[in-house]
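stage 2 :: seqdesign
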């Protein structure tokens, strides 16, 4: 659902890390509205979750931050990937099955 929403909104997902109670995303937009992407993803996944569990998946708002340079992107991506390590969920981010980075894809 994440990649489908990104594709339909012309957003590139650079890094994601699903944690037990929140999600970290790093995305790139070449003029597309990131708010539309977030809305589409939260709507699709929230609808699925509500049907499967009768519960609510997302809070109404979210926090965002604009990254200004490519150097910062990779540094922030590494910080995001290390979240499960800092939370004690794994020893290395690569062990966390719910993390991915475009900079760490095998050729």
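stage 2 :: out
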């Amino acid at each position: 659902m994440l990649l489908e929403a990104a594709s339909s909104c012309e957003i590139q997902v650079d890094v994601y890390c699903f944690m037990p109670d929140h999600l970290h995303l790093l995305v790139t937009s070449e003029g597309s509205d990131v708010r539309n992407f977030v809305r589409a993803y939260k709507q699709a996944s929230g609808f699925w979750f509500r049907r499967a569990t009768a519960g609510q998946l997302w809070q109404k708002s979210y926090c965002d931050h604009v990254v200004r340079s490519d150097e910062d992107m990779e540094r922030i991506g590494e910080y995001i990937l290390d979240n499960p390590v800092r939370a004690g969920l794994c020893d290395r981010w690569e062990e966390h099955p719910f993390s991915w980075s475009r900079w760490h894809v095998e050729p």
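stage 3 :: structure notes
- The domain at 2-104 is CATH 3.30.70.1290 (Alpha-Beta Plaits).
- The longest helix spans residues 34-53.
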